[in-house]
Amino acid sequence: GIEFINFDRNFSASAPSVAYALTVVTSDQETDLPVEISHNDGIKIWVNDRLVYEKVGKKEAKVVELERSIALTDRFTLHFQQGDNRLLIKSETQGNAWKVYLQPLPESKASLQFAPDHLPDVSSEVASLSNWLILGPFSKGINEPLAPEKEFIAGKIYENQGKPITWSVPRTELVGDVYGANPLFGSLVDYNYHTAGVAWAIGNLGQFTGEKKYLDYLSHYCNFILESVPAIAFEKYDLGRYSSRHAFLIDKPLLDFTTAPALPFLYRLQIEEKFENRKSYEAFVTNIQDYVRKRQLRLEDGTLARETPFKYSIWSDDMFMGIPFLLHSGLYAKDREKKKEFLDDAARQILGFSKRVFDPKKNLFVHAHYTENPGLKLPYWSRANGWAIWATSEVLLHLPKNHQHYKEILALYQKHVDGIVKTQDESGFYKNLLTDPQSEVETSGTAIITMAIARGLNNGWLNKQKYLSYAEKGWQALTTVIDAQGKVSNIIIGTMSSEDPNYYRKQPVAEDDSHGLLGLIFAGMEMQKLSRYK
Prior knowledge:
The protein is an alpha+beta fold and about 525 residues long. It has helices spanning about 125, 195-210, 210-240, 265-270, 280-295, 315-330, 335-355, 380-400, 405-420, 445-460, 465-480, 500-505, 515-534; strands at about 5, 15-25, 30-40, 45, 50-55, 65, 70, 75-80, 85-95, 100-105, 110-115, 135-140, 160, 165, 315, 360, 365, 370, 430, 440, 490, 510.
């Protein structure tokens, strides 16, 4: 995580000044620690009284948020001895902002702890409030030496222009967090695509059943997220909490935290003409639309891409992360040109992904394709195939049948279904790795695939005589993982991509993980429709 010192919130940055921040870094071994740093104006850093970093002159602190990490502007190396190491920062403001970001990089194998209670006469209660002590401001320049550079005396009074100054704890604010969030990557309290997906699913359930409580859940969820934006922005940018569980709500450059989580907001705009804070919803959705059209990473042909684990990675997951949002943006748009732009983009995405991650020999999707290593073949992960077929079926559900790509997309869907059903386990489930006999059966992939097959039967895309039994066996299997209290089991948690099948085999499973709940709700609705039409 980032060590952040915001001198702005403790001292005025309106006039040229310097201030200090001090901590002790305890290392279990002697080590060189690469770190990234970003800061305003001049700075000096000492480790155990040795100057290790210095930059002077006017400078702006910048933080670049990447898909899975944070990048700071400069890099250097800190050398720590085994045991306690005193780390002192002297920071300058020339009268503007006054921030320091320091990010240890994961290249050192040492175990490190930042804790000021390893300083003389500083208690653990103080350390529980902050990793740092601060001292200032002093009306001096960065190159004018002051006593704190050579001493630490708790409680000693220094003076600046006749005013007393002593070491203190940085200003501390109450912040939001999540308690008892289990499972970690699938809880119903984090901001992400699968938690929002559950809200989208429950909203659809409300429309399907006419039950007000489900529509209320949709509106309560969306309102809560929108009301949280100012607090999360404050935490992220003023308090430097880039590693907060909630920080991904704002300006995260990844479809998992942009387009897919916006689906419940877009859905409410589509189904409800008038409600009190509709303009806030519109602004939220418009911002995400602007992101996916102008700032989201894409290949040259426009296909949505990632920069992890390699730049221009194509994940089957992103068919669900991005395509339904594009599609529903087109359905929602009032302007004819915008409507066409979004719908065409959604259709082209299906074809662009299929060129890279669909295996026509197996009629299955591999989990991902890396442009840096195109020969590397990843497994046929069940949930990735679920995300892919969900996106394809969503496009078929709403794309005009006279669209130039409709027939091609329908043919892809039918081939995919044909490939998937060949892997169905005799129990009715699908294995976590579809073609791997050593892999265990799993709930989320089974739920999404069952939904997509039932959807095809309901809309005439599939032959009932040939495919009905696969949907029914899939649903029957799913009923065995729902207990009397409604708890759903055997859902694989959030998963990265890998060419190693053992990575998927060893992934933990959890109960009530939202990755499984959203597909299960949609599967239930499609199966209910199917039972009406049989």
